[in-house]
Amino acid sequence: MTFSIEPATAPGVTELLRLSDEFAFSLYPADSCYLLDVSELTAPGVTVVVARSGDDAVGVGALVERGDGSAELKRMFVRSDARGRGIASGILTTLEGVARGHSIATLQLETGPLQPEAIALYEKHGYRRIPAFGQYVGDDFSVCMAKTLG
């Protein structure tokens, strides 16, 4: 398994994003799905990490820098047939390394209450629940979390 920084337009990534969209929309109403599209993932200050098994893209995650020493994790997704193998942890660890390298002190994220596996993953990696922030304020389908990087 490899974890590397790649463009959002790299082979297999568009399909991962499509599957991620499909998954999110199967759980939550459309107005509670805060998914960045390819154009947003190719913007300055966004780093995309792709997990590959050989040439096959099996997972993705993104770091969106805010320019104030903080960043948000977005688009964390692992293909259903690749789950349970530590891929999400590898993506998360890689994104945290990128954040440290960019002098990011605080990482925040939003996930949903119908994703207990995601919440458990983030808690295992030291993320704690915080009050909703930004566009997530007032959305009952949002669970917001943060971690201070050392």
TrEMBL record:
Quote the protein name from its UniProt record.
GNAT family N-acetyltransferase
PANTHER family listed in its UniProt record: AMINOALKYLPHOSPHONATE N-ACETYLTRANSFERASE-RELATED, AMINOALKYLPHOSPHONATE N-ACETYLTRANSFERASE-RELATED-RELATED
Q: Does the keyword Acyltransferase apply?
A: yes
The organism is Lacisediminihabitans profunda
Taking every annotated instance into account, which residue ranges of this chain make up the domain N-acetyltransferase? 3-150
- Gene3D superfamilies linked: 3.40.630.30
Query: Which GO molecular function annotation, any one, does this entry have?
Result: acyltransferase activity, transferring groups other than amino-acyl groups
Lineage at the top is: Bacteria, Bacillati, Actinomycetota, Actinomycetes, Micrococcales
**PROSITE patterns with a match to the protein in the record:** GNAT
Looking at the record's lineage, which domain of life comes first? Bacteria
Q: What keywords are annotated for this sequence in UniProt? A: Acyltransferase, Transferase
